[in-house]
Design a protein that fits this description.
The complex is a heterodimer of chains A (about 290) and B (about 180).
Chain A lengths: L5 H28 L1 H40 L1 H36 L8 E10 L7 E5 L11 E3 L4 E8 L3 E6 L6 E6 L5 E5 L7 E3 L12 E4 L11 E7 L5 E5 L8 E6 L21
Antiparallel strand pairs in A: 1-2, 1-12, 2-5, 3-4, 3-12, 4-5, 6-7, 6-9, 7-8, 9-10, 10-11
Chain B lengths: L14 H25 L8 H16 L6 H14 L6 H15 L1 H5 L3 H27 L6 H32 L1
The chains are: A alpha+beta (about 290), B mainly alpha (about 180).
Chain lengths: ~290, ~180
């Protein structure tokens, strides 16, 4: 170590805080000027920490499971009653679905309908909260050999979760539908009206820009729209709920507060991504 | 009086000793970074990373300022910004300002009771959240919602007693080790 005289050392110690505060402003400028560098650094850091998070995931998951188990044991009677009712309802729906399926097959045969190709997907585990105070995002462990790609669509077992915005070698960041920068083109299933679902960092994103005279109605099902070429049409998103203050919100099917595994779908679409997450998605790799 | 035990003279500061000294000095910073990484594990409460960061930096600044010099605060802030999607530099500035203000009043704070320190920390947390809100607004050029900021104040003020208990233990152990 370099020996310094005591007054000099004290002066340096006193100077270090203002200098570092200036450096903090410099960092802000750098972050604004070179978003690509920041994104790369973030993903390198995430890749480096991925083994730790993967290891921690196991005990944390076990504890969470135990807590959930205890809760479900506690509510087992009410849950049972609810499930019995739901089962009855679903039986009726199953009969309807079977009838509709056969009718649909018949009609498709008559129309020479070309079915959509079955999309490829792979499953990835959520290992870390990648958002922070003013952002909603999660980090996935993609394991290296799986082809994560910007613009892929993430769904959990119930519905739409978000989109892949940053990809590292072992990890990927998914911007959730609730993030303040998230804009999802959607269709209201009953009226076929288009609208935009805007994240606001709260649990329920808002609806905006629906066509004149076709306001979303309470309880309407919301699915993705193929407009802008970012999503395939018809992925389940949620249900419209009006707030007391008179704004339509979407109650998401996906349980974003307890994500543990998501499916990443590659629809091969190259539509727009939010401007923060760097211009265009990479083209799909040819094999 | 016993005759002093004869032996070899103390070896000059070798590599291992130096590593040992550096690790001792860096322990609070490294532990804070470790805590940050652990706080990112999803448990259903977003924004935990920042909420964990502030009490730790505050505690070390008040009770063991040598262990939390400004460069360490800068590093922790940078890690915070890179781990989360916060605009780069905002966490750094918030932590440095909180650190600077706390350091100015540390002579007063050290002599206060736990409750008083907790109250002061609450005020610091409010200030930090307000500064973070303003910075996020300026850097992303859109008005951020105020709810997450309040959440963050609540979580970090609520976490402070638990973290302070843990850190007090660590602090005492380090004092004992120092002799």
């Amino acid at each position: 170590m370099i020996r310094l005289s005591i007054p000099l050392r004290q002066a340096l110690a006193r100077l270090s805080l203002p200098v570092l505060i200036a450096a903090a402003f410099g960092t802000m400028l750098l972050g604004k000027a070179d978003t690509l560098l920041v994104e790369r650094t973030r993903m390198v850091l995430a890749d480096t920490l991925m083994p730790i998070w993967t290891a921690v995931q196991q005990p944390v998951g076990a504890v969470q499971n135990a807590v959930r188990e205890a809760q479900s044991l506690w509510e087992i009677r009410a849950e049972n009653e609810r499930l019995r009712l739901e089962n009855e309802r679903l039986h009726r729906w199953q009969a309807t679905a079977l009838a509709l399926e056969s009718e649909n097959a018949l009609l498709r045969r008559q129309l020479a309908w070309i079915p959509d190709p079955a999309p490829q997907f792979f499953t990835a585990r959520v290992v870390a909260d990648g958002g922070g105070t003013y952002a909603r995002a999660v980090l996935l462990a993609t394991g290296g050999q799986t082809p994560a790609r910007k613009g892929q669509v993430a769904l959990d077992e119930r519905g739409f979760v978000g989109r892949v915005t940053e990809v590292g070698s072992r990890s990927a960041r998914v911007l959730l539908a609730t993030d303040i920068n998230s804009r999802i083109p959607i269709t209201l299933e009953n009226s076929r009206a288009r609208a935009i679902m805007v994240g606001n960092n709260a649990a329920r994103p808002r609806l905006q820009h629906w066509p004149e005279g076709q306001a979303p109605r309470e309880g309407d099902r919301v699915v993705t729209s193929a407009e802008a070429g970012a999503f395939p049409a018809g992925l389940p998103v949620g249900v419209v709920r009006w707030t007391e203050s008179g704004a339509p919100e979407v109650e998401l099917f996906a349980r974003l507060d307890r994500l543990d595994v998501v499916r990443l779908f590659d629809f091969g679409l190259t539509g727009i991504l939010p401007p923060e997450s760097v211009a265009r998605p990479e083209p799909r790799q040819r094999r | 009086m016993k005759a002093p035990i004869r032996g070899r003279t103390e070896p000059p500061a070798g590599l291992l000793r130096r590593i040992d000294a550096v690790l001792r000095a860096a322990f609070p910073t490294l532990a804070t970074l470790g805590l940050l990484v652990l706080a990112a594990v999803p448990v259903g409460a977003p924004g935990l990373v920042m909420a964990v960061c502030l009490p730790t930096v505050f505690f070390w600044t008040v009770f063991r300022p040598a262990a939390m010099p400004p460069p360490a605060v800068f590093g922790i802030g940078l890690a915070l910004d890179l781990l989360t999607l916060a605009p780069l530099g905002s966490g750094v500035l918030v932590l440095l300002v909180a650190h600077g203000i706390t350091q100015r009043f540390r002579g007063f704070l050290v002599r206060q009771s736990f409750l008083a320190v907790w109250l002061v920390f609450g005020a610091v947390a409010v200030g930090a959240a307000a500064l973070a809100w303003v910075l996020t607004g300026l850097l992303t050029w859109q008005l951020p919602p105020t709810m997450p900021a309040m959440h963050q104040v609540g979580i970090s003020a609520g976490l402070y007693p638990a973290l302070a208990w843990l850190l007090t233990r660590a602090h005492r152990a380090m004092q004992r080790a120092d002799g």
